[in-house]
Design goal:
Blueprint lengths: L1 H6 L26 H8 L9 H16 L12 H8 L6 H20 L24 H11 L1 H4 L8 H5 L5 H4 L11 H14 L1
Pfam families: PMD
InterPro entries: AminoTfrase-like_pln_mobile
Protein name: Aminotransferase-like plant mobile domain-containing protein
Length: 200
């Protein structure tokens, strides 16, 4: 229910099945880079958005902003989901998002332990101990903001008060929380989180 409160996505519903997609809309592209993809699928400015253009937008949104694919290109695996959303299919997107976050956190833990996930398709193995975290980490950050707002001394700047007063989902407020003082770097904030967790 935290996911539902933060994002507004339904926590219940049928399980997403990529094979349930219809063949009414096909989205084929060779241009995986963002700029080329957007140019390819952007329709004329003064015309109504076509079905294919809307599916292309949803595919970009899911790949880059929702599930935050590791690749710096547009992932094709979200096309069936984009088509289903476009056609008004209802499935438990909130539950899927949470499951993806758990999987991403598991991969980060494996990387921190020096383990390589069995299903990792990365062709490049970092030798300096660094790794790239992928997945919807934004959801984890918003949850941390919601859970430890007082402990971290987070605040909302005055210029956002009018906007969050009209919010429909809690994420609108949580994303605007800022550390106090603002000068804290990521290492200081991380240590604050760790001290809070250790004190629980």
């Amino acid at each position: 229910f935290d996911v539902s409160a933060i994002t507004g996505l339904r926590p219940t519903g049928k399980t997403y099945n990529p094979s349930d997609v219809s063949d009414n809309i096909t989205l084929n592209y060779k241009e995986n880079a963002f700029s080329a993809y957007i140019l390819k699928h952007s329709g004329p400015e003064n015309e109504e958005v076509s079905d294919e253009e809307h599916v292309a937008f949803l595919n970009l949104w899911l790949s880059h902003f929702v599930f935050c694919s590791r690749s710096l290109q547009i992932a094709r695996k979200f096309i069936p989901m984009a088509v289903q959303i476009h056609e008004g299919c209802h499935f438990a997107l909130g539950r899927l998002l949470l499951a993806t976050l758990y999987e991403s956190i598991g991969e980060v833990c494996d990387n921190l332990k020096g383990l390589t996930p069995a299903k990792s398709k990365s062709k490049k193995a970092a030798t300096d101990g660094s790794f790239q975290a992928a997945g919807p980490m934004w959801l984890l950050q918003l949850w941390l903001n919601a859970t430890f707002e007082k402990e971290l001394g987070l605040f909302i700047p005055t210029e956002h008060h009018a906007l969050i007063a009209k919010r429909k989902v809690e994420g609108t407020r949580l994303i605007r929380l800022q550390p106090n003082p603002l000068e804290q770097n990521s290492q200081q904030l991380f240590m604050k989180y760790m001290k809070i967790f250790l004190a629980i």
